[in-house]
Design a protein that fits this description.
CATH architecture of the largest domain: 3-Layer(aba) Sandwich
CATH topology of the largest domain: Rossmann fold
CATH superfamily of the largest domain: Response regulator
Number of helices: 12
Length: about 375
């Protein structure tokens, strides 16, 4: 690739470094690399992720860094391209020589670079959703978002609770969509559900009426949407236009106010599993995630003047999981940090309470999800 890399951010806390240098000794920085979809179709993921990482790296450095070392954050914008992700991860590993990587806004970008980080032996915490990222377990790969399989389980449990038995599925052709649809097919029987119709749309499609018409004609009681981005709004609007009577469920890829704003009135009544973050104020006072979520919301909204999304929350958890591992390891040595990540216990994040192990590089269960419904143009916490 000959184009100039879209390097978004690489900076040390200037005052801190100058102060250290003035004292005659500049501590070596701990270098954290990131590749994010800051632009392109998945910018609604990568933009808040980038802003979150920048915000907290600055805060941490202002408070003295980690183990006496400043953090250096190096971020490249993939433009939502897996090909670009490969190019930039090579650069992070070979030229920037980062100690660890936090990034990968989408499943496609993440899966494209796993062999690179595994070969290089660098801790990598993905911000993407598909279960295939950490199942089966890969030595150097971790993730913070709940998996698509967990989302399907939460949705199916709600369908079962609502007395639904015949359902439809609709999703796209991307990596996350296909993984979600696959899990939806595999899990249906266990929840007493029969899939009467399963439809797929293509990349860039702007009208899903034909697929939804087939689903409606199959006589389903509810529909699960497997996808994210612009398609979430299109499917929701087309669903309302066709007058489908059964409830529409989404996966956690729609846990952003941008979805509600884009779909408008058509989003009313949509149910979906999300991280506690988006309804932190509605959580019980004794919920351990309430205080963490409210603190992040305050910091982010004060810094950027916009609503938080669960996607920025994924980056928050990833950064502090990494920092916690570095502190426990007492070093930024990649192998020791990897081991410490794997030993994470009772880390209270905005996505849930993480407990990792050699068999589980996510550390969350379906209970980490909250079931929400769109009511009055906002999120309503159900349970």
């Amino acid at each position: 690739m000959n184009e100039r890399p879209r390097k978004v951010f690489s900076v040390l806390a200037g005052a801190l470094l100058l102060g250290l240098a003035g004292a005659g000794h500049a501590a070596e920085p701990i270098k954290i690399g990131s590749f994010l979809a800051v632009t392109g179709p998945a910018a609604f993921l990568g933009d808040p992720e980038k802003k979150t990482l920048e915000l907290y790296v600055d805060k941490i450095n202002a408070e003295g860094g980690v183990l006496g070392h400043p953090l250096e954050l190096v971020v490249y914008d993939t433009g939502t391209s897996a090909k670009n992700a490969v190019t930039y991860v090579k650069r992070l590993l070979q030229q920037d020589k980062v100690d660890a990587i936090v990034g990968g806004s989408t499943t496609g970008e993440t899966m494209a670079v796993i062999k690179l980080v595994e070969k290089a032996g660098r801790p990598f915490i993905s911000l993407a959703g598909a279960s295939v990222i950490i199942d089966p377990v890969k030595k150097w790969v971790f993730k913070t978002p709940h998996t698509d399989r967990m989302a399907v389980e939460k949705v199916y449990a709600d369908m079962q609770k609502e007395g639904v038995s015949e359902i439809g599925l609709i999703g796209g052709s991307g990596g996350f969509d296909k993984s979600c649809l696959k899990n939806a097919r595999e899990l249906a029987e266990g929840y007493g559900l029969t899939i009467k119709a399963a439809e797929q749309y293509g990349k860039g499609d702007t009208d899903m009426t034909p697929q939804l018409t087939k689903i409606r004609n199959a006589g389903v009681q509810a529909v699960l949407f497997c996808g994210f981005g612009a398609a979430s709004t299109i499917v929701t609007k087309n669903y309302a236009q066709l007058g489908l009577e059964g409830r529409l469920y989404h996966n956690h890829g729609s846990c952003s106010k941008r979805f509600i704003e884009g779909a408008g009135e058509a989003a009313e009544g949509v149910r979906l599993p999300c991280a506690a973050l988006v309804v932190a104020e509605q959580l019980p006072e004794d919920d351990p995630q309430r205080a963490v979520g409210l603190a992040y919301i305050q910091a982010y909204t004060e810094a950027y003047g916009e609503d938080v999304s669960t996607f920025g929350g994924h980056a928050y958890d990833a950064l502090f999981l990494l920092i916690g591992a570095i502190e426990r390891a007492g070093t930024a040595d990649p192998a020791k940090v990897r081991d410490a990540l794997e030993q994470t216990r009772n880390f209270i994040g905005v996505d849930g309470i993480f407990n990792m192990s050699p068999e589980d590089h996510l550390g969350l269960g379906p209970e980490a999800f909250k079931m929400l419904e769109v009511q009055g143009g906002d999120w309503k916490f159900l349970y």
